[in-house]
Amino acid sequence: MKTKIVLAGGSGFLGSILASYFATKDVEVVVLTRNPRPRADLVREVCWDGATMGGWKTELEGARALINLAGVSVNCRYHVRNRLRLLASRLDSTRVLGEAVARCAHPPAIWLNSSTATIYKHNFGPPWDEAGEIGGCAEAKDIFSVQIATEWERVFNEAETPQTRKVALRCAMVLGHARNSVLPNLLRLGRLGLGGNLDGGRQFVSWIHQEDFCRAVEWIIERPELSGPVLMAAPNAVTNAELMAAIRKVCAAPFGLPAARWMLEVGAFLLRTETELMIKSRRVVPGKLLASGFIFHHPHLFSAITQLTKHN
Ligand SMILES: NC(=O)c1ccc[n+]([C@@H]2O[C@H](COP(=O)([O-])OP(=O)(O)OC[C@H]3O[C@@H](n4cnc5c(N)ncnc54)[C@H](OP(=O)(O)O)[C@@H]3O)[C@@H](O)[C@H]2O)c1
Questions:
Q1: Does 196 contact ligand 1 (Cβ within 6 A)?
Q2: For residue 209, which of 169, 174, 200, 234 sits 20 to 30 Å off, Cα-Cα?
C-alpha cells in the first residue's frame, strides 16, 4: 500500500510544491481544500471547510503525515476584518485538525503545522536559532503578526495527540518560481528599475529555496527525534541590500531606485499590503535541521535565485 500524506490547505504555493515533490516519490497525496476540483496529476482533492469536522477526517486514518498549510494570505492590509480572517483561518483549521487527529483509530505518525520565522524579534544582531527571542516591536510593525504566530502555535501545542509527533514549521520566505510566490514579484520590480534598497536595506531577510523546503519537510518526517518548533530557513540570511543587489544582477538591471520608508508606506497602501513584510529584520539559522545533519542544496541566495530563474 502507498504511503499517504495529507496536505490541509494544500492548494496554494507551498501545498503545490509539496504535492509535486511527494508525487515523484510514489506517495499518495490528498489535499484538503474548500474548493475541490478534478486534477490531471495523481493528487486527490477532498472538501473541508477548515473549521468544522466532516467526512474529510477519514483521510487522516493511517496517514504517514498530516501537513497543515491553511491560512488566509498575509499579503493584505491588516484592518480589523482581515485581522479576524487571518487569525480565524489559522486557529480554526489547527484546532479542528487536532480534534480529528485525536479521534483517529490510526492517527498520522506526524503532524507538521505551519508557523513562521516572523515569530522571532526584529533582529540586527547574531542570527537566532529555534531558542531565539520571540516578540513584536513597534519599529518593525510586526506586533499583530507575532500575535498570530504565537496564538497559532499555542493552539497547535494544546492539541492532545499522544500518538502523533508534532512539529511547528517556523518558515522563512520560500523562494520559488510559481506566480503565487514572492520571487517573480521581486524580479518584476527589478526589471522595472525599482529593485533598489528598501528602507535603507540593512534589515535581514531569511529565505529558503523551494527544493530545500520540500526536502526539509521529508527529512523531518523521517526523523523521529525532531519535534517541536523547527526553523525552515537557509543557513545564510542576507540583508535587504544584498537581496536587491542579487535581484538586479539576475535581471541585468543597470540600476534600481531605492525606496524610503514613507514611499513603502504609500506603495503598500496602494498595493493593499503591509510594509512589515519588507522592513522587519528577520535573521534566523536552522539550528535543528543543521544539528540533525540536513545538507542544503541551495545555501546561498544568489545561486538559489539564479537556479530558480532558469525556470521562468
Ligand atoms: N510561502 C511562504 O513563503 C511562507 C512563509 C512562512 C509561512 N507561510 C505560511 O504557510 C502557509 C502556507 O503558505 P502558502 O504560501 O502555501 O499560502 P497560500 O498559497 O496562500 O495557500 C494557503 C491555503 O490556505 C487555504 N485557505 C485560505 N483561506 C482559508 C480559510 N479561511 N480557511 C481554510 N483554508 C484557507 C487555501 O486553500 P483553499 O482555498 O483551497 O481552501 C490556500 O490554498 C500559510 O499559513 C503561510 O502563512 C508561508
A1: no
A2: 200
All structural domains of the chain, each given as residue ranges with its CATH number in brackets, are: 4-176+207-235+283-296 (3.40.50.720)
Cβ of 72 closer than 6 Å to ligand 1, yes or no, is: yes
180 lines ligand 1 (CB under 6 A): yes
305 within 8 A of 250, measured Cβ to Cβ: yes
CB neighbour list of residue 78: distance below 8 Å, 6 or more residues apart: 86, 144, 274
2 Cβ contact partners less than 8 Å away, ≥ 6 residues apart:
26, 27, 28
pLDDT of amino acid 311: 61
- For residue 238, which of 285, 186, 185, 188 has the smallest C-alpha distance? 285
Average pLDDT by consecutive 10-residue portion of the chain (312 residues)? Answer: 94 97 93 94 95 98 98 91 95 98 98 98 96 94 94 98 98 94 92 92 97 98 98 98 96 92 86 88 98 98 95 57
